[in-house]
Specification:
- This protein is α+β, with helices and mostly antiparallel strands.
- The chain folds into 2 domains: 2-19 and 135-288, C8orf32 fold (Roll), CATH 3.10.620; 34-123, Immunoglobulins (Immunoglobulin-like, Sandwich), CATH 2.60.40.
- Helix content is 27%, strand content 31%.
- Helix 4 packs antiparallel against helix 7 (202-215).
- 46% of the residues are buried.
- Residues 1-30 and 249-258 have low confidence and may be disordered.
Length: 289
């Protein structure tokens, strides 16, 4: 079991670095609440829906970053692409946020292009976890979203949807060991490409499941943290009966188990790994998306 966990963690250790880069599909731009200068624009008019949008307006070959900091004090760092919008979740819920845009000037040094501080009041504490964002980029036409609609057509509860999507993920995808060894900084899942390939790394598994669940009205968190001593990604879901199911669990008819499809699949759902997955104390959250 230790050898299996070590081999899996070799690609997972890149995950936190990978999540510091990338671009997603933004929502419709509104100008009612905006901080803007000649280079950048921060649109927080969508705060009630649980996200903020950022755009660097000029052409440049310089690296660009955005940081979002909420009441928890955790700083979320993202990559930007020039002239394209990116949307980021307000993971800390209601409260004061500071969003800062940076441009690389030399080496690892960045200069502040612009910043904005605002107080967010969400329509619901679940709002950030029911929508598309940079890391979980999907629409109603995304293939896995269409699959979720078919799978969950007769499902009446959140956990029934979780169970069906979880089982489908294990059956449909294979763990891509080659990709895990060669994945580059800046990688973000293209869910349609992952779906077509029928294989992926831990980020692919997690983003696919989150997109599928959110599209079915199940508030879902993509959590980045430690699985034992290794960086990993897992999923937490919200149910009306139990609230947030911390540790991302599913019910198999006998007991609740940790819903971590990457570990379960890459270890062929062995009894030892499923016992590890089912122990919530093995997981420590660091970032929540």
């Amino acid at each position: 079991m230790k050898k299996k966990l070590i081999s899996i963690s070799m690609c997972i250790c890149f995950l936190l670095e990978l999540l510091s880069f990338g671009i997603g599909s933004p929502k419709v731009y509104a100008r009612s609440t905006v901080k803007e200068n000649s280079e950048m624009c921060i649109d927080y008019s969508h705060q009630s829906k649980g996200y903020v949008m950022v755009k660097y307006k000029e052409s440049t070959d310089k690296k660009l970053k955005a940081q979002v900091k909420g009441s928890s004090g955790v700083v979320y760092t993202y990559n930007l692409k020039p002239k394209k919008w990116a949307s980021f979740p307000l993971s800390d819920g209601n409260g004061t946020y500071k969003v800062t845009v940076y441009k690389n000037v030399a080496g690892t040094s960045y200069a502040t292009v612009g910043a904005c501080e605002f107080k967010a009041k969400l329509s619901s504490s679940l709002a950030p976890f029911l929508t598309s964002s940079q890391y979980i980029d999907y629409t109603k036409n995304t293939k896995c979203v269409k699959k979720a609609k078919t799978l969950c057509k007769k499902s009446k509860t959140e956990m029934n949807k979780v169970k069906k999507i979880y089982k489908w993920t294990l059956k449909y995808f294979k763990y891509d060991k080659k990709k895990a060894k060669t994945v580059q900084s800046g990688y973000l899942p293209d869910l349609d490409k992952v779906y077509k390939a029928k294989k992926g790394i831990c980020f692919d598994y997690a983003a696919t499941m989150v997109a599928m669940l959110r599209s079915q009205g199940v508030a879902t968190k993509l959590v980045i943290g430690y699985a034992g001593s290794a960086y990993h990604a897992w999923i937490n879901v919200y149910t009306k009966k139990k609230g947030w199911v911390t540790g991302a669990i599913y019910f198999n008819g006998r007991k609740w188990n940790m819903m971590d499809p990457t570990f379960a699949d890459s270890s062929n759902s062995s009894a030892a790994i499923m016992e590890y997955i089912g122990n919530g104390s093995n997981y420590t959250a660091k970032y929540i998306y």
